[in-house]
């Protein structure tokens, strides 16, 4: 159908309005619809994501007809009252970011009070656009605005020179009353920002180094859950920073059903439903196909844990639901009860999915649980392993069973796990007998590698418990946890029980990783998925080691040591304070430094700078910048923000908005874009301090020695001294070992410096030279700055702090530092 002249223009713009209205409603519905869990992402709207069909074509024709009728009616009816406020759009640039120094901006803006002008703002400067350009297409739709026919604006500008960073351009409309409205924010990236590290990267065999992945969590790929992800960050991708996706595969839920003994089904039909909801929204085959078709790296969350449970029981499909029907397969509370699966459906902050009331036991005598979990996990693992061999550039890794706990969701009203098989294993763990002595029975594995260094006798156990046990069969763990009198966390018998619970979690992650490694997936690509959330005020910090002191809260058996699998690496889930590395720890330690010391191969498998206990609080850009800086600088191999198809930041503050599920159009996403630019061609394993960005000033923890000052600016640090030299001291702890850095790079104008020297602090507090003072003119210089080779003395294996001594070329001059980096030795 073709419409003549003005009718065609009007119908086209009216149809755009109809589509935008539907899309807005869809987006709002996605925001207001609670996700099944914080691990599976928010739901995409299926009706907008299905491929076109005949019904859709009929709908389009009908909508065009309606739009034409609307346009005809509008010509006959008086114009409606105009809503207050400025409206408008930016047509060019269409992409979020432009690579270069020059930019062309065009669009339109209207206001009932009239538009005084449009400004293009960058780096604190405002530039006027040409306003009043003819836009008859806008006038034909926006009836009632007196200036609609001349509502267009244009701007052409070249902003060279620019600092080597991403710069934000804000397009701002100003009405005649002086009120300002931001129509759009766009990025401008000078080419040198993406290439300043490339020379060093190439010289040091950078192409042999791994990639740092940013992998937004999402779900519902066949429903459009990954829509636009493949192209959203194209200007920001480099050899060292790439963007992909993390997708949950529920390997115990997406099966061939009861008639086929719940075999894992890689071709799972997402249209199978439980009531009005889908049983699962993703299949392994669809995820792999989307990854290959769109060249998107993928992290597979192979989830058979508590968060893979569902809104309702479907035992005909979900083997987890089937197994939970038998009390013997479940975790028991201290009263030997197993609660209904939906018992906690009204728990504040949780939805009816997943159901948290019951979960499968981890003990080694739960033969059915272990059989189905191993079989289905390996079935999925073999397919993933084949994908990894065929597309190594697209395989980011696998993370396993998020939040493996002995059920802590009853908030100390109930304690777990008192399953008879768990109690039998507890007794054997204490005594070092049965599987711990290398003589397993009832299908249990050989657990002799986990045998206690000092097994206990029955008499010792009785003294610890303060009870008389005539046989090992009578040994029973604590079943009450008093806070009055002698609190439970000071009780020696409770501590034995708590260490065993942590051991159970550790053993479960070990087994999952071993089963997966047997399918051919390399251990360096296997990660756990344990939550490390900042404790409430008054609560003890969470356990670092399996033998850490008992906590004054139910930790569910969680510890850092217990989350490091035998055949894999630590995968951390961090939100709020934990995500920005600001959380109380045992012995005043640093969370990410602890991760790095205990497992240099660790990664962040899920995070948001928002606190999921405070969904109304909106995180800042500073928090996003800090989180990414700390994760990278302490060696995380990748990071997975929540969530690509979660709450959109444009709706922040509105009812139903959930901050901890928000990624798109948030300050955290902005921080990621700046991070990707500043870290282009910076090899993973490096430490890089950029002192903020073009929109944020941060000293990054660096301080000046007495007699000097260090003042952060927007992406730089100004150092001033009245003396002969100035000394900068790094943040602590660095947790830096001798094999992790052999070059310091100082982003500074060589003409401002006379000499540089670098020292490291030894564990005894003494400072040891890594680079004796050398004239800056003697050192190699690249676009990234001055390269200072580091020579570690044999006596120094690790340091927690560096100091950099700078002698200015001219007395009392200012030294501006763009960045400081520590680079790992060249790859071979």
What fraction of the residues are assigned to beta strands by DSSP? 15-25%
Percent helix range: 10-25%
Radius of gyration: 30 Å
For the residues shown, what is the average pLDDT? 89
Gross morphology is globular
Structural class, by secondary structure, is: alpha+beta
Count of DSSP E strands?
37
Query: Which residues form runs of ≥5 with pLDDT under 50?
Result: 1-76
How large is the count of helical segments?
16
The span between the termini is: 64 Å
What is the makeup of the main sheet?
Answer: 7 strands, antiparallel
Short description:
By secondary structure, the chain is of the alpha+beta class.
What does this structure look like?
This protein is α+β, with helices and mostly antiparallel strands and 828 residues long. 23% of the residues lie in helices and 22% in strands. It contains 16 helices and 37 strands. Strands 22, 26, 27, 30, 33, 34 and 37 form a seven-stranded antiparallel sheet that branches. A six-stranded parallel sheet has the order 11-10-21-20-19-18, covered by helices on one side. A five-stranded mixed sheet has the order 2-9-8-4-5. Helix 10 packs across helix 13 and helix 15 (621-633) packs across helix 16 (667-678). The longest helix has 28 residues, at 5-32. It is globular. 46% of the residues are buried. Residues 1-76 have low confidence and may be disordered.
